[in-house]
C-alpha cells in the first residue's frame, strides 16, 4: 500500500478505469428500451464480478474482494432501478443469492481494511504499546473470511447464479414505456431525495450514517449507469460530490468497525490503556468531518 494513502484513496474512479477487473460505464443510448438498458448494465456488472472471482479463489489480495463486492452492489442497484421488469420467484431468488454473496464478501472486506489500514495507523499512534495480540487474532479472522469466500464460490448456489441471471435477462419483456431517459430521471430524482433527507437530519446515529452511506452509493451507481444519457450538465459535479461523501462516510464506518472489533476481540490484559481513547477520537474526528462537509454543501 502506498504510504500516506488509504485503500479508498488509491482506487481509480470506476468510470475512468480501463482495467478489466474494475467497473466500467455501460454504453447506453437514449432510444434504447428499458429492457435493453438493463441487459447492458447487468451484463457489465456480471463481467466485473466474474473478472475478480478467480483471484479470490487463488490468492489473498484485498482488491479482488473489494471489486467483487462493488460489482454485486452495482448489480443489485440496477435490479432495483428496473424493478418493474424483474418481478417473480426466479428474480427474487437471484436477488437473494446476490445479497447472500455480498454479506460474505462484506465481512472479508471489513477485515481487510481493519488489517491493512486501521490497525497499522493505531499501532503508529500507540508507539511503544503493542497490538500484536490484535494482529494475530485479526490474521486468523481474515483467513477464516477468505475460506468462507472460497466455500461460497465453490457452492452450487454460486455456480447457479450467473446462468440464472443470464436466463432471466434473455427472457425480459420488451419495454419502451417509460422511455429510458424518463425512467433514469425518475430514479435519480427519487434517490437524490432520499440522500438529501438523510443528510438533513439534525442529529445522526450510527445507523443513520450507515444508511446514508448505502443510499449515497446507490445514487452514485445510478448516476454512473446513466452517464451516456447526458441527463444533466452537472453529472460530473454530482459524481465528484458523491465520491467525496463516500470517502468521509467510509472513514467513519472504518472507525466504528475498528473500535467494535478490537474491543470485542482483545482481552483486557491485552488492551493498551490509550487504545479506547484513540479509537473514540478517530470516530469523533470522522463525524466532525462529515458534519463540516454538510454545512458547506
If you had to describe this structure to a student in words, what would you say it looks like?
- InterPro entries: CHAD_dom (IPR007899), CHAD_dom_sf (IPR038186).
- Residues 31-297 form the CHAD domain.
- Residues 1-22 are annotated as: Disordered.
- The chain is an all-alpha fold.
- It has 2 domains: 29-176, CHAD domain (Alpha solenoid); 178-296, Up-down Bundle (Four Helix Bundle (Hemerythrin (Met), subunit A)).
- It is built from 10 helices and no strands.
- It has helices spanning 7-10, 34-58, 62-81, 89-126, 132-153, 156-170, 180-199, 206-225, 235-265, 275-296.
- Helix 2 (34-58) runs antiparallel to helix 3, helix 4 (89-126) packs across helix 6 and helix 7 (180-199) packs antiparallel against helix 8 (206-225).
- The longest helix is centred in the middle third of the chain and has 38 residues, at 89-126.
List the helices and strands and how they pair.
Layout: H1 7-10, H2 34-58, H3 62-81, H4 89-126, H5 132-153, H6 156-170, H7 180-199, H8 206-225, H9 235-265, H10 275-296
Helix pairs in contact: 2-3, 2-6, 3-4, 3-8, 4-5, 4-6, 4-9, 7-8, 8-9, 9-10
